[in-house]
Amino acid sequence: MAGVTMEAFGAGGAVETTSVDHVATGEPAPPRRLVVRKGRGDRIFFGGASFSGAFVLAIMVAVGVFLAIQASQALKSSGFSFLTTSVWQPDRGEFGIAAIMLGTVLIALVAVAIALPISMGTALFITEVAPKWLRSWLIALVDLMAAVPSVVYGLWGAYLLQGKIVGLSRWINAWFGWIPFLDVARADPNSPLSSESVYTASTFIAGVVVAMMVMPIQCVVMREVFSQVPLGEREGAYALGSTRWGMIRVVALPFGRGGIIGGTMLGLGRALGETIAVVMIISPRFDLNFHVLEAGSNSVSSHIALLTFESSGFGLSALMAAGLALFAVTLVVNFTASWFVARSRSGASSEA
Amino acid sequence: MSVPRLLRRVVFAVSATLVAGSFVGGGSPPIASASFSYQRISGEGSSWAANAIDAMRVNVRQFGITVDYNPSGSTAGRRNFLNGTVDFAASDIPFQFSPEDGSAPENPAPGSYAYIPVTAGGTSFMYNLQINGKRVTNLRLSGENVAKIFTGVITTWNDPAIAADNPGLTMPARTIVPVVRSDGSGSSAQFTKWMIAEHGALWTEFCNRSGRAPACGNTSFYPTIPGMIAQNGDLGVAGYVSQGFAEGAIGYVNYSYALNAQFPVAKVLNEAGYYTEPTPDNVAVSLLQARINTNEADPTVYLTQQLEGVYNDTDPRSYQLSSYSYLIVPTKVAGQFNEDKGATVGAFAYYALCQAQQQWASVGYSPMPINLVEASFDQIRKIPGVVVQDIDIASCDNPTFSANGTNVLAQNAPQPQACDQQGSVSQCPNGTGGLSNVPTDVLAGPVTGGTTPAGGTTPAGGSTPAGGSTPAAGSTPAGGSVPGAATGTTLPGSNGGVDAGTGGQGCDADTGLCAGGSSGTPTGGGTATGGAAGAIATTVLPQPSGWGGSTVLLLLVIALTLGLVLTPALAWRRFSSKEPA
Questions:
Q1: CA-CA distances (angstroms) from residue B506 to B61, B407, B426, B531?
Q2: Does the predicted interface ipTM exceed a cut of 0.85?
Q3: Per-residue model confidence (pLDDT) at position A24
Q4: B184 → chain A, closest CA residue
Q5: Which domains are seen in chain A, by residue range?
Q6: Nearest CA of chain A to the CA of B146: how many Å?
């Protein structure tokens, strides 16, 4: 990273060659030593840029260190059981993130599973299909979706979507309830008097709402990648008689694979941390619940949001530990995402 | 629907004029002169009392007082008061020095706070239940059944215990969905305190089952078991219960939330054997039995409430889950709280204890009795920077005050109707809570055989009176056509039978009288019940039931059709592409 920056600045500054003329002697010329003499403006810019870069890094490290210090009290007392316990009663010394982390991951997975096809379709439509005048409108609209505050999504989810979507949950459960994770305890699709409440406040509904928030992020990354598909390959495909879909299939999608994976994982990272919309929809529960359609779910961030102002001392330390765990998971996901983007052909070209 | 709202607005306007009148008339200006500039103050806490505090916030704006209030729950309110991030807290329960549920103790600095009881109200049980497509508004529950519902012992509405409470209703076989608070809440604390005092065994058993044991004291954090829904704040609970998908749900919220949501609340059985609802009148009566701590030397308990007397009150009007809610105000300058803010908090508290009491009943709360108002005035003096007001209590127009010092509101509270008594043949049809103007048809006598399993037979029995075209007269009903309709609706399926049976029981088999006929409501009541029953029975029958024989056949047909359409095309494509090769 630093090397790249140096080169970039070097190109701007004056480059002095210190070589002697070796052509006459016929010996192979030793590599010339490059000395960069930077001007004042360059130095100020270099200093400023590297300071902000370092500052961002320092903040990240500081957040991690702060969380670790705050969490140490709780982690020391709980030890390894912090990862395996599912109840949360820190003041009695019994707490762990097993249930809430599982809920977090499930909500994020549901969100990504729903958002991925939508965002990919939107990105392809914008870059490949939509007429020019529509394109800018669509881009603005998708960006607008990203700008809607998540509490608005939460209200929408809790008071409008939830009532409409229980029918779908019920249908899925009735027909695919034999798949273990789509089963719903206490639900009886055969009984007209059974309560629809068993389908509300579920991982699935929270996931759908989070999907709406994740979709724009994924879409932006994918659109960026698809728009970089080399014109030559694109036209080559057409020249060989390919249809538009054929071109998308053999050129755009393979070229953009890294971006698709990276964008998906970025979305996953966002989904893992979504808080307020989840708080408004779920009914918190503290057991290992794999049934995504069943009432009750939990996530680390919503758990922290619910309890922070009601805990003190040790309870707060336990919440910090949960936050630390979420921080670590998000970090891993985001790094994996950027690794994918950077390693892919499309990502590599944008990096250089 | 808009009538009560309009009414409320009118009442509001009138009371506002009265306030302004007393203010201008100089009876006693409780709010300091306009030249004084108030600081913006912020409070946090009880969502149980939030509707009352919000009503005050709107009203004090005219005096230039701006109050921000965050109804995030009593626990969060007390915690943030301790953290010094808010200027006052609102809490249904006092600071928890030694909490019984295993949570961390709260330790406010001695002498840094004072309790000011500000409003009274009832923790009500708002429910969403329909019988034959018509919303039930007159449900009755004994305290034991309430406890059993919220501990997961009773799980369906047609449980014999609930049916015994409701002789006039044919309870449906719906699942009960108890909706509780997910945040730290004073309502949860008051509710569990009541449950422990009255039905301790049920609570202990539930506490063990939920994994909360051994810390089984009263708790602000209601433990949940699968089948329960937990929501954030009174508003979250009320919002959940009032939605269409939540049929069968019942949640505990302050009475005012049921009024706002226009939903009914359950009448709860009291010690005197009457089912009552927490109207402002009934709450005032109940709280006559609240024991208020009067030990002024100990500010940690001064003015706090002991409610055992309320639970055991033998006044037929009393409601067991009545309680006071408190403002917690600072008595020392610390952090962001200074004397200027103290002046504002004081003025706000004066307003709350004097003028605001007039309007409590219109928002679903109950006004404070005179002794607590007087004691609270003394508490206000402890706020640093307060501009002490010398208020003539009589000028407050508090509905509980009288010249001789008795609680007029409680004295004049109406006695419950005879049909609200335990063991009455039927029950009152009158609606409750936010649907007090919507009556529910009731059976004339007790239901025999709550859910007859043989659906096919019940309509036949019920069909005799189902010709409710002449229910008032009670003459031999012309059952000719109606039984035909009833049998027609019970075609296939086992579920329809139960419903058809329910419909049939809308009328009493012995007397031939239909619902409403005896209680003097228009004769249409009987026919309406019969009609609704028929409609429900027909709509209920075709329910999707997952994979069955017919479904497999259907899929087979679809696959075959697709194959028939697609095979020639695919085959042609395959062969035509091979030929040139």
A1: 52, 43, 13, 10
A2: no
A3: 57
A4: A310
A5: 5-64 (no CATH), 80-351 (1.10.3720.10)
A6: 19
